[in-house]
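Sorry to interrupt, but I need a hand with the structure work. It will help me judge whether the discrete encoding reads sensibly. Write everything out right here, beneath this request:
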Amino acid sequence: MSGFALPLLRLTASQYQRVVGHCYHGLPDEACGLLVGPVAGGEATGAVSGVYPARNADASSRTYTVDGKDFLRASREAEARGHEIVGVWHSHTHTDAYPSPTDVRQAVDPMWVYVIVSLRDEAPTLRAFRIRDGAIAECQVVLEAG
């Protein structure tokens, strides 16, 4: 895992498919959603117990804002599990799966993992990052059965 930041983000194959599918469904705009999982010692563990597709309130191909109602729904479901929102994903429709300056400015929670799905190439590319105080560090993503 050398060179990667913590946590190791663990997605099941079905969670991955749901995230990527939602990104394609959002075209031509950016799509977005929330990741829910356990937290230990104030940090996301990297396990994902739920993925929650959301409406992009910006309805834009260049920016995203998670719809407030969708955020509230995911937050309530996370709390019911004893978990928290541990990250957000969004798509880049024409650029790399790497945080843009706008993504860095909008990174509101240093505990969160920021997942970006690039739809620029024939096959989607999903990458995850920690963004803290403007610094970007990539997290390793592992797909698990399920």
Observations:
- The radius of gyration is 14 Å.
- The domain at 5-144 is CATH 3.40.140.10 (Cytidine Deaminase; domain 2).
- Strands lie at 5-12, 32-37, 39-40, 43-44, 50-54, 84-92, 113-118, 125-132, 135-144.
- The chain is about 25% helix and 40% strand.
